[in-house]
Amino acid sequence: MRTCVFCSASFKAPKPSSPMRYCSVGCANRSKIAAPGPCMDCGVETGRKVGRGGIRRCQDCQSRNRRNHYRHKNYQRRHATPPPSRRITMAELGERDSWRCHLCRRKVNPVLESPHDLSKTMDHLVPIADGGDHEPANLALAHRICNTRRSTGGVVQLALIG
Questions:
Q1: Rounded to whole angstroms, how far apart are CA atoms 39 and 109?
Q2: Where are the domains of the chain?
Q3: pLDDT class for 34, splitting at 50, 70, 90?
Q4: What residues have CB less than 8 Å from 93, skipping those under 6 apart?
Q5: CA distance linking residue 137 with residue 90, whole number of Å
């Protein structure tokens, strides 16, 4: 008989030579959680275990850090420059383009949200993958389905609306 390192319960190992130290998977998992300590970013007390490099983060900071990591990684992958300091919102883009898809010229419903096929998206006229940037002059309103079908299908010119 052995004694669990975490809960001190007695248990029998499956083999005499087994290196088991815990009576269950639950005790093994609970033992890996570090003692409560402050989050490295915001200082909130958290019981989350220390990650790589000895960094402890609460769940909110960890999610924010992961999002920023992948956002930066995608910009690097596409050889794009980071977004400009002047960002354009979807509402501003819709008003500028009169809520019309620049690819099919039909009305875009501002209420529909992703993943609906006819929801609103920002389309890059010169794709980021081809060296375009995220400036308002390079953006146009499009339906999600139209934007997906176009993919990175070359350079498109914004139609002049009179």
A1: 42
A2: 1-32, 33-77, 90-150
A3: low
A4: 122, 136, 139, 140, 141
A5: 14
The answer to whether 121 touches 147, Cβ cutoff 8 Å, is yes
Radius of gyration of the chain (CA): 26
pTM for the model: 0.47
Q: Which CA distances in Å does 23 have to 6, 26, 32, 135?
A: 8, 8, 14, 59
Strand partners, 141: 122
Whole-number Å distance between alpha carbons of 75 and 66: 14
Angle at 70 between CA 123 and CA 138, to 5 degrees: 20
Peptide bond into 84 cis (omega under 30): no
Q: Is the pLDDT of residue 12 over 50?
A: yes
